[in-house]
Amino acid sequence: SRALVLTSDFVTGGVSAINLTTRAVSADVAVAHSDARARWGFGRLYVLNRYLADNLQVLDAATYATLRQFSLGNGANPSDIVVVSPTKAYVSLYGTPFLQIVNPDAGTLGPTINLSAFADADGPVLSRAGLGASTGSFPVALFPVRGPLLSRAGR
User: In this predicted model, what pLDDT tens digit does every residue of 123-154 receive, in sequence order?
Assistant: First the structure.
């Protein structure tokens, strides 16, 4: 067995692999953004290249090859991802009340889910990191907005 680890010095980023039996490290087996978050599923590593990169990168976990990399839209600033199947995932977009549905296999964007209906008297809400694991349903962390809100135009 092995572990895949995101690495960053806040200028460059990468993915390294660790053999958990021998403790041998294979450094920088793939390139990632300096601000990235990753999730594992279905034999693949899903890397959200976040602030100013705004894309989803799908890596084959056996070969470390990038199978697909596609834009989530300028300024999307993806925060977290839940992959429910190779063809469906939900991406929270930092600073917005939206979840973006994507097809990681096809590299396409689907509709968005607007979570604004969950706002209360304190003001609007936004989805953020912490979508959690998927077992048919998943939690979404919602945070009230107090102060300036950076949002994606047209959403």
Answer: 666 655 455 554 555 656 655 555 444 444 43
Neighbours of 34 (CB within 10 A): 18
What beta strand segments (E) does 20-130 contain?
Answer: 25-32, 36-41, 44-49, 55-60, 66-71, 78-85, 88-93, 98-103, 108-114, 125-127
Distance between CA 49 and CA 113 in Å, rounded? Answer: 21
Task: Please report the DSSP string for 31-50 in residue order.
Answer: EE-SSEEEEEETTEEEEEE-
pTM for the whole structure:
0.83
Give the C-alpha distances (Å, rounded to integers) separating 52 from 56, 75, 102, 142.
12, 7, 19, 23
